[in-house]
């Protein structure tokens, strides 16, 4: 998932075309590859940690939130914390993202890096409902489903799915956990992450442990202003949450400390991202910084 690099089919296509020396086909392939790179982010992050969440009011519930919104993909992640309880480790979250023919999945993660990230993924169950599943990127090719003291409880008012979009509003209990990677700075900000695919999870969509493949539609870090996300309506809306979503029998215990960053690692996060992009893309990382 996040920050994972893939060899594009464009490269293979170009190599095979060179054998037949059909240069106009090569140009068309090149153009198609450029266009598809533009439409689908592919290997490069489509956001940076310099993008801060902004104030947002959910139209359905009236809840005041902070929200990250990816303009290129229309992936949104809103979040709210209780106004009074300063020690709350729970938040109300809302993922909104586009689907293609009713298919796709989206995810938010507690850190901006793929490695060891603690992730909540959501996708349509194909029957009008939304599935939600905790993952941990201890295996980046197939992040296992995990269980622990955390829980996700759907909030029906802000949960709706149709052929073109999905909105999943939820109470994430005990999710704001430093041992799972959350790294708050002194101003109440934390670099978090997101990912988006237009493909259904592999296997049965109603299996909460279904395998999630590559997030080809977009991914990246952003800065969540958790300290600015306190909402007076939190308690009233949290009280409408349904019971916890059960994990599948495949789920394993979440591993504390799997996400590399301790709290004093903050300054390294951006450097790590740059290193990965540089090593795979031959040093055009400066473009990403400008986004
Ligand atoms: C405040 O949040 C903590 C951690 O989420 C929880 O255990 C506690 O019950 C909350 N207190 C109130 C008054 O809601
Ligand atoms: C699907 O849901 C979105 C968001 O609620 C809405 O804007 C859109 O009109 C809906 N599309 C259809 C075909 O109902």
From TrEMBL:
<keyword id="KW-0472">Membrane</keyword>
<dbReference type="Pfam" id="PF16010">
    <property type="entry name" value="CDH-cyt"/>
</dbReference>
<feature type="compositionally biased region" description="Acidic residues">
    <location>
        <begin position="262"/>
        <end position="291"/>
    </location>
</feature>
<dbReference type="InterPro" id="IPR015920">
    <property type="entry name" value="Cellobiose_DH-like_cyt"/>
</dbReference>
<feature type="transmembrane region" description="Helical">
    <location>
        <begin position="21"/>
        <end position="41"/>
    </location>
</feature>
<protein>
    <recommendedName>
        <fullName>Cellobiose dehydrogenase-like cytochrome domain-containing protein</fullName>
    </recommendedName>
</protein>
<keyword id="KW-0812">Transmembrane</keyword>
<feature type="domain" description="Cellobiose dehydrogenase-like cytochrome">
    <location>
        <begin position="56"/>
        <end position="235"/>
    </location>
</feature>
<keyword id="KW-1133">Transmembrane helix</keyword>
<feature type="region of interest" description="Disordered">
    <location>
        <begin position="251"/>
        <end position="291"/>
    </location>
</feature>
<dbReference type="InterPro" id="IPR053208">
    <property type="entry name" value="GMC_Oxidoreductase_CD"/>
</dbReference>
